[in-house]
Amino acid sequence: MDGSFELTLQMIVAVLAGISAQVIAEYLKVPSIVFLLIFGMLLGPDGLHLLYPQKLGVGLEVIVALSVAVILFEGGLNLELRDLGKVSGSLRNLVTLGTLITLLGGGMAAHWLGEFPWSIAFLYASLVVVTGPTVISPLLKQVQVDRQVATILEGEGVLIDPVGAILAVVVLDTILNGDASPSEAIIGLSLRLGIGASIGAAGGWLLGLILKRASFISEELKNLVVLAGMWGLFGLAQMIRSESGLMATVVSGMVVGASALPEERLLRRFKGQLTVLGVSVLFILLSADLSIASVFALGWGSLFTVLVLMFVVRPISITLCTWNSGMNWRQKLFLSWISPRGIVSASVASLFAILLTERGINGGASIKALVFLTIMLTVFLQGLTARWVANWLQLNRHSGATGAVIIGCNPLSRLIARLFQERGESVVLIDTDPEACAKAEQENLPVIQSSGLDIKALEEAGLDSMGTFLAMTSNGEVNSVLAQRAAEEFQPPRVLAVFPRDPQDNGVTSKGKVNQAFIPQLPIKSWNQYLTEGQVKLGKTALKEPGFAFQRAHLQALIRSGELLPLLVERESSFQIVPATDNWQPGDQIIYLLHDPRPKLLKRLSGASPSSRLALEKLPEVEEVPISAPVSGSAIAQMTNPPQQEVLQPPAPGLKVEG
């Protein structure tokens, strides 16, 4: 077989296996690294003999270097600086003190339990101080934990990767050059971090400036400009000082991400796709190159080394680094449990194994095997149990999140806010209109006069911990944009908006993570006018199993006629805004508005006051479901699609359905 085609086939097999592993992991909702490791070892020389990464030669090192640069740049790009500010103390401690604790603890465990020489033991510890962002990020997407905890884990994973890689290089240099003093090692570490950070900051600022000013560059080409610029910064830093390129990529990603680019969403999507491809290929190649026999040859001492790293060193590090953070014991316990190692540890360990072997130093293969054993144990034990641990510790953001942030201070918004408030749940209104805000304040409703696009205003409103975001201004397209932004930035459990149905949607009433609120094509101006003029009643009805089909059909008929607007649903102690696609169930408590167009004089004669505060009541127009006898399927169909101007027959005796 031709040599070039054989190498091409190797890459094709790696890509196919990597993407297949990603698809399976996505379907089963588990960390993708689980299947990447399995597929890699299965296809390698110890398995089906389809992949031989060593045939790539130095090309494997090139693939590793460029892929890791993309991965770290994407991690820096996705770091939310506003969230990092809230946990900056704990995060700074983890990147500094935590790194030192892991280095010392892991080194001592590897020496005393794994029986490695001190130099090799500390080289292993320097390789596993990092927690992989390529494992953490997918894990946190599947396990929606407390935002403060998620920010610390994501920040630690991204920021500690270049620090750990550079630290490992310093330790390796010390081993290869035995006469190096500790002061020289510290100076080397500082130089690499400083040079990388400086080049990354300057280059990231320049990239951001080019993307903003160069309007002649198309959106598709801008993504490639960023890719080329990022690799250029990586290469420049590496030329000036070896291994400083990793720090340059992280810092440049953070600077570009903070530049408020108009194409930021497309850029993140492009870099995210490259990261998935890079991680997939790298893990397949590196795990295929792993000798399974070398892992089993490590013995029980190495297994105990990894367990000590997980169950002793990590909890000590978290306890000390978050001592004055204000976090509770549940949050700290989850942080102690989640510290999976990833692609940077695997790739650097693979390169170091080659370098040590070339220099005639024993331990290269053992170090690589021990690092991969650490990756496997942390990923399988921690990654696969993360959801269960989060639920047990009650850290799942979706499980207990209540309250609402509502954009718009119109009468309908204020009514919904009052209902949340009466329920005892937090609610905050946001609007730019000072007059509308004043009316909300008169009703003792928390209100912020600002734009719904203002991230600081949303933070002040507490959207981080709220269960619902609702955009219901009078402009449907604006509502859709506001809701999409809130979903991307804060990821609340429920994101709803009042927006017109797109004719291309074929009846689908959602846009990505945003659900349509209340009913399709809600005439919000009309209902606000009804509220202002006192032409509504506020009702509550319970859906019961006996007669449920008739009751639901009756409600739907009132909704279609424009007489009834469902607002909120109470289901299993949950209090939520009704989405347009909601499938009502027996046991639901529906709070609604009923249009009451009677003249004001008639209302006053009946004892009602237009200015009186709406109170929940059971309304006969809704509770008394008119059903013809005998009951049949045609009766349900008739109620679901009532003919125009039809007068429903009086209810038969015994067929009055009450909520």
Quick summary of this structure?
The protein is about 60% helix and about 10% strand.
* Largest sheet features: 7 strands, mixed
Low-confidence stretches: 503-510, 628-659
Spatial order of the strands in the main sheet? 3-2-1-4-5-7-6
- The helix content is 55-70%
Structural class: alpha/beta
First-to-last CA distance: 77 Å
Mean pLDDT, as a whole number?
84
Strands, count: 11
* Global morphology: elongated
Beta strand %: 5-15%
Write the layout of secondary structure elements.
Elements lengths: L2 H26 L3 H12 L14 H21 L2 H4 L3 H25 L5 H10 L5 H10 L4 H30 L5 H32 L5 H22 L4 H13 L6 H25 L3 H5 L3 H22 L7 H9 L5 H16 L5 H20 L2 H7 L4 H4 L1 E6 L3 H12 L4 E5 L2 H9 L4 E3 L5 H7 L4 E6 L4 H14 L4 E4 L12 E2 L2 E3 L7 H10 L2 E7 L5 H13 L3 E8 L2 E4 L11 E7 L4 H6 L14 H4 L9 H8 L19
Parallel strand pairs: 1-2, 1-4, 2-3, 4-5, 5-7
Antiparallel strand pairs: 6-7, 8-11, 9-10, 9-11
Structural summary, described in words:
It is elongated, with a radius of gyration of 30 Å. Strand 9 (564-571) and strand 10 form a beta hairpin. By secondary structure, the protein is α/β, with parallel strands linked by helices. Helix 14 (300-321) packs across helix 17 (364-383). It contains 28 helices and eleven strands.
